[in-house]
């Protein structure tokens, strides 16, 4: 059995499962803090009830997210020991800071928030949930610092024997430009994810005319604004990130567009069926100049193609295949962008309804609002698949290939990996099911179920 394939499969499954929970944690922590701040400022009981309600759902998701995240770090030592040896001096630093600073900040003040209701002044209590939100989003920052080194290595030098990379500048690692392209994208995705959960749950209560109508009208108002802002920001952040990738990771862009040859102006693919082996289109519908516009805000501008980039990589790194799975990059990009476009539409519909204070939903509008929560999940998952798969065959771009990073089969066998893949998939599926059932139970129970 191919240990490389199994190790990649296990990491892909566990990371995608884990990332189901992360954006919702980021977004709901901030939304809960906003609700409690509104209570502190206005003294209105409905905001206190909403803060407890959304905080309850945040706690469920947070707990499952922590459990699924623990396995991620263990995999680096077990399945990817060669990677850990190569970049451990660099990669371990932001992960350690994330655990010791951000996660401890988050978990400590989460305890104060949970047990501090009516025991500490409400201003301090509201401050505790803001510190939870800050801790949650700082955790994301440090994880992205580690991931960004894999995407765009900075602040390092190779050891004298060439066996590993050593950090030379923590400042360069922290202020890696790739970090500050990824971070706004992830945070705004979290805001959008939290906002659409608020929209879906609030709409369900209003459509079913539960006893908390007034509170959920308020919740829908805040959620619509929150989701619209998140959807708009994630689109802008993604566009900025894509423009930078044209320069830093041109192969990822070319694969995402099935752009076989360099073009100037470059066309944008609406739909392409390609032959990866021959590196040519079988059928394609393209918009002339649009890819150049997206890349440079100008209808002319060179975007390098897969064939030319492959030749450049061979000349620079030696013989090998430096092309990622084009079909994976192409369709993950389209799922991400398609879901993101629908997110903007759904948020705009919700915002239009609440501005008019119209809480009567027809079948089509109701179905759109209720199902809208699935859109950021699709976009988030597809985005991370593109991010990680699009840089293959590199695990650290330009420094270490994925096939060089895996633990040797003599240490971890294919049978052991296959067993762990099956076991983890079953466990993670069960945890995801538990999360969904608990969220559904307490979301439909309403405000009184959170008391």
TrEMBL record:
Residue ranges crossing the lipid bilayer per the database entry: 20-41, 53-71, 91-115, 127-145, 186-207, 219-238, 331-352, 364-386, 417-439
Domain of life according to the entry: Bacteria
Membrane topology annotation: Multi-pass membrane protein
Coiled coil: none
GO cellular component, one term: plasma membrane
Protein name: Cytochrome D ubiquinol oxidase subunit I
Family designation: Belongs to the cytochrome ubiquinol oxidase subunit 1 family.
Annotated keywords: Cell membrane, Electron transport, Heme, Iron, Membrane, Metal-binding, Transmembrane, Transmembrane helix, Transport
UniProt subcellular location: Cell membrane
GO molecular function: electron transfer activity; heme binding; metal ion binding; oxidoreductase activity, acting on diphenols and related substances as donors, oxygen as acceptor
An example Gene Ontology biological process: aerobic electron transport chain
């Amino acid at each position: 059995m191919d240990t490389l394939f199994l190790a990649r499969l296990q990491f892909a499954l566990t990371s995608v499962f884990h990332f189901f929970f992360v954006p919702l944690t980021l977004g709901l922590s901030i939304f809960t803090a906003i609700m409690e701040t509104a209570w502190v400022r206005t003294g209105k009981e409905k905001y206190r009830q909403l803060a407890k309600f959304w905080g309850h759902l945040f706690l469920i998701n947070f707990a499952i997210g922590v459990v699924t995240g623990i396995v991620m770090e263990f995999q680096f030592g077990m399945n990817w020991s060669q990677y850990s040896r190569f970049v451990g001096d660099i990669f371990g630093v932001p992960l350690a800071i994330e655990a010791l600073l951000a996660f401890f900040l988050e978990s400590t003040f989460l305890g104060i928030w949970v047990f501090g209701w009516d025991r500490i002044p409400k201003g301090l209590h509201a401050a505790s949930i803001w510190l939870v939100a800050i801790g949650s989003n700082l955790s994301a920052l440090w994880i992205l610092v580690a991931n960004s080194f894999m995407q765009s290595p900075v602040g390092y030098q190779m050891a004298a024997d060439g066996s590993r990379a050593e950090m030379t500048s923590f400042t360069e690692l922290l202020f890696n430009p790739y970090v500050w392209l990824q971070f706004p994208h992830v945070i705004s995705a979290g805001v959008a994810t939290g906002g659409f959960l608020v929209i879906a749950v609030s709409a369900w209560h209003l459509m079913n005319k539960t006893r908390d109508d007034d509170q959920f009208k308020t919740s829908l108002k805040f959620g619509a604004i929150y989701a619209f802002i998140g959807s708009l920001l994630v689109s802008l952040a993604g566009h900025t990130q894509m423009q930078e990738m044209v320069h830093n990771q041109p192969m990822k862009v070319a694969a995402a567009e099935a752009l076989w040859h360099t073009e100037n102006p470059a066309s944008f693919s609406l739909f392409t069926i390609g032959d990866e082996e021959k590196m040519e289109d079988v059928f394609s519908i393209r918009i002339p100049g649009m890819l150049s516009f997206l890349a440079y805000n100008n209808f002319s501008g060179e975007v390098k193609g897969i064939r030319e980039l492959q030749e450049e990589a061979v000349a620079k790194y030696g013989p090998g295949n430096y092309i990622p799975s084009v079909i994976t990059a192409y369709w993950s990009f389209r799922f991400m962008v398609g879901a993101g476009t629908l997110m903007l539409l759904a948020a705009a519909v919700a915002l239009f309804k609440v501005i008019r204070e119209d809480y009567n939903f027809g079948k089509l509008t109701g179905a759109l609002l209720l199902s809208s929560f699935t859109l950021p999940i699709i976009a988030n998952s597809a985005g991370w698949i593109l991010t990680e798969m699009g840089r293959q065959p590199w695990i650290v771009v330009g420094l270490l290939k994925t096939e060089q990073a895996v633990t040797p089969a003599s240490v971890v066998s294919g049978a052991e990996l296959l067993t762990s893949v099956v076991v983890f998939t079953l466990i993670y599926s069960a945890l995801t099911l538990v999360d969904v059932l608990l969220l559904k139970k307490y979301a439909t129970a309403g405000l009184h179920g959170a008391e």
